[in-house]
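Minutes, project huddle
Topic: does the predicted pose make sense with calcium ion bound?
PN asked that the exact inputs be recorded in the minutes so nobody has to dig through chat later. Recorded below.
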Amino acid sequence: AKEKGRGLVQFYESHWQQEKEEKLRLDAKLRQALAGHRLDVHYQPIVDSSNGLPVAFEALVRWNDSEEGMIPPFKFIPVAESSGLIREVDLEVLRMVVEDIRQWQQAFGGDLPFTVAINLSAIELSADHVDRLTEVIRSSGVAHRLELEITESLMMQDTEESVKLIRQIKAAGIAKLAIDDFGTGYSSMGYLKRFKVDKLKIDQSLVRDIDHDPSDRAIARAIVALGKALDLTVVAEGVETETHQGLLCKEGVPLLQGYLFARPMPGEDVVGWVKERRR
Ligand code: C2E
Ligand code: CA
Ligand code: CA
Ligand code: CA
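Predicted holo structure (tokens), as shared on screen:
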């Protein structure tokens, strides 16, 4: 039995070792992709639930590797978060989004009729990272068309320092600050006011089963009520079916996002998609 036990330990150790090596490999590869500007961004519309018109797009990072093909965010974002490389990813996404917004503005012959939301990783905010982000936002000329999505876990680092840093980003002139995956973490809600939040995104795990889980529906209803009380707008994400749409409309959710309306699309397709819808 002792022999067997040792074998098992060795098995786990080598498995753990393999995972660690795989993470290091992916991280090094991502570093190269960043240096070569080979990441891209796709955009998914967020529509007004009353008329289906797009009011915003969410920018989602894409990594198409020449050898491995599309590497999905759920594979490399956690790796980049543990190494800290996610900061460079978020900054690169911000730069790409600013560039795309400028091009779309030319295509529209003026200011855009929508905003663009960027995801900011939930790892600890540092002053120098926030300085770099605000510098790009401030000098972009399109700050008023940018939104920032941050997760509840970031908000829960409710320290004077993080309040100061989030307010610094808002002061760079962004349109909105949104809380991503809202309703999945447990928190005091007091932070909503302190961080000057503008928008709540109901997590897709609450939307998925909303047609047969009364408690998910009750949570959605409560989030809408909270939004009304605090003057925050509310988005439901992961809207896949007309049943989802119908129920969320009935609960008074003003904004919807999900495959029902569109999958994330390349930047080149955004202007055409918007023009088609607004006809
Ligand atoms: P998220 O911020 O919650 O983004 C929504 C995710 O749900 C996206 O996955 C989107 O493609 C997917 N989605 C949209 N509509 C539907 C739907 O109707 N059904 C289902 N099942 N899924 C839907 P994606 O692009 O794979 O991104 C996954 C996560 O990776 C994001 O979740 C976000 O946490 C992270 N992420 C993506 N881009 C960035 C980025 O530039 N920076 C950072 N820090 N994180 C990012
Ligand atoms: Ca998001
Ligand atoms: Ca989300
Ligand atoms: Ca692009």
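Observations noted during the meeting:
- The chain has eleven helices and ten strands.
- Strands lie at 39-48, 54-65, 69-71, 115-119, 146-151, 176-182, 199-202, 233-236, 255-257, 265-266.
No decisions taken; revisit at the next huddle.
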